[in-house]
């Protein structure tokens, strides 16, 4: 099944829906290590920060309206030497998984990151032994395994690893 959502840059009107999607992952999963869901105001600050940095924040509009998912690239580390390296994040509304939307968002994010001057994109994926979809998605788009951090987080009574994956992006222009 293919998701026909339109992918476009995020805007302020999308942030309530983004907050709702992400809250599901904070409260009901170990996919993110966050334990308190960011508010819409927090997402407003994130959108403003990423926009000021020239980094992409994309949404997928659901075919009948609403937001089906989102993806963005944020700074990998604060030091200036890392300015061409970013970390990607992709989250889908629970009723929009398994339809190819993650692939479409990641493809659009890779293009937007290359255009923004990102040369290395890092994926940090929580691994509780039950999340094969995210590493598989990243591998399909050319990410390679860069390492594993063992038992670095705990959430919902579980110790969690992270898988680090990396993809080089070609210079644009």
From TrEMBL:
Top EC group: transferase
Superkingdom assignment: Bacteria
Alphabetical UniProt keywords: Acyltransferase, Transferase
SUPFAM superfamilies registered for this protein in UniProt: Acyl-CoA N-acyltransferases (Nat)
TM stretches of this protein: none
Signal peptide: none
Domain N-acetyltransferase: 5-170
EC number: 2.3.1.-
Entry-linked Pfam families: Acetyltransf_4
One of the record's GO molecular function terms: acyltransferase activity
Record flagged with keyword Transferase: yes
Protein name per its UniProtKB record: GNAT family N-acetyltransferase
